[in-house]
Design goal:
The protein has 330 residues and is α/β, with parallel strands linked by helices. It folds into two domains: 164 residues, 3-Layer(aba) Sandwich (D-Maltodextrin-Binding Protein, domain 2); 133 residues, Bacterial extracellular solute-binding protein, family 7 (D-Maltodextrin-Binding Protein, domain 2), CATH 3.40.190. It contains 15 helices and eleven strands. The strands form three sheets. A five-stranded mixed β-sheet has the order 2-1-3-10-4, sandwiched between helices. Strand 1, helix 2 and strand 2 form a beta-alpha-beta unit. It is globular and about 60 Å long. The N terminus is likely disordered. Pfam families: DctP. One of its GO terms (biological process) is transmembrane transport. Keywords: Signal. This is C4-dicarboxylate ABC transporter. GO terms for molecular function: carbohydrate binding.
């Protein structure tokens, strides 16, 4: 169990029980936001979370997932969950950095050495500190999902060195760190809603974007951007979270059901992600995508020093968290 889940562990009877989440006769719906299509690993984890809650609440609660961003784009949805317009969601920690500075630390390029290292860090004290920052922003973290390693893809040519980004326009998520990252590599960054990327690639509004294999596949971006360069510059977790006020209004027994459901969904999602990432890579390669591995990433990593320096200068109180994440991987 994650550290921040342990901190909320409650003393209750060990026997299984069915708990009513609402006093009225009608089930109370919890609306869950999701940017991905239903067959995506994140979606599978969310559906498992909802299934367990619905089952254990004895029908008093209906947790429902709205897939495909139908309830709005990610920045808007973050605000909706904070304010109570939506009840729960899974958000990438990149955009969450806009409301909780602690979440921005994991958006520093190359801060994680591997996906496994990210799991260890996020399930430990550093993850707890990030969770505390999100709680202050009105979000109650319940678990950390996997979203793999992000790499650059574009319509022009393979990227082997930072010089290959020069003059190219890349879509990035809504976070100034990503704008700085692309600029430090010589490219031009354009924050843009995820749903607009496909058409923008097709029409030449942008030259490329950056994401993991499953998103590159499921979005259809590989149909427009044929060059995928394995930079793995970002390894970003995603946060299964809910509105803090809704969470605080639950009884101890209700909170246990929520945390048990979250634990089960994290286990399922991480396993599903690993399998899907390999399957998506095989699919795009079979479709004729040119994938190039980058054996030596030193030039990319060295170019990020100004990004780190600017971040620490703007957030001196987070220097300890940056060091803790780095030290946890030694």
């Amino acid at each position: 169990m994650n550290t921040f889940l342990k901190n909320t562990t409650l003393t209750i009877a060990a026997a299984a029980m069915t708990v009513a989440f609402a006093t009225g006769a009608e089930a109370r719906e919890w609306r869950g936001w999701n940017i991905h299509p239903p067959e995506y690993p994140v979606s599978e984890g969310m559906e498992e979370f909802a299934r367990i809650i619905n089952e254990k609440s004895g029908g008093e609660l209906e947790a429902k997932v709205y897939h495909g961003g139908v309830l709005g784009d990610q920045p808007d949805a973050i605000q909706q969950v904070r304010l109570g317009g939506l009840d729960w969601a899974v958000f990438n920690l990149g955009p969450l950095g806009e409301v909780a500075p602690e979440a921005n630390v994991v958006s520093l390029p190359f801060i994680f050495k591997s996906v496994d290292a990210m799991h260890v860090v996020m399930d430990g004290p550093a993850g707890q500190q990030i969770a505390d920052g999100l709680i202050k922003a009105g979000l109650q973290p319940l678990g950390w999902y996997d979203s793999g390693a992000r790499s650059f893809y574009n319509t022009k040519h393979p990227i082997n060195t930072p010089d290959d980004l020069k003059g190219l326009k890349f879509r990035v998520m809504s976070n100034d760190l990503y704008v700085q990252m692309v600029a430090a590599l010589g490219g031009n960054a354009t924050p843009m809603p995820y749903g607009e990327v496909y058409q923008s690639l097709k029409t030449g509004v942008i030259d490329g974007a950056e994401n993991n294999y499953p998103s590159y596949d499921s979005s259809g971006h590989f149909e427009a951007a044929k060059f995928y360069s394995v930079t793995q510059h970002l390894i970003l977790p995603e946060c299964l979270c809910m509105n803090k006020a809704v969470y605080d209004g639950l009884s101890d027994d209700e909170k246990k059901i929520v945390h048990d459901a979250a634990d089960a969904s994290v286990t399922l999602q991480r396993a599903s992600w690993a399998a899907r990432a390999e399957k998506s890579k095989e699919k795009v390669v079979a479709a004729g995508i040119e994938v190039n591995e980058i054996a030596n990433k030193d030039a990319f990593q060295s170019a990020m020093q100004p990004v780190y320096d600017n971040f620490i200068k703007a957030n001196p109180d987070l220097a300890g968290l940056v060091k803790a994440i780095q030290d946890a991987q030694k």
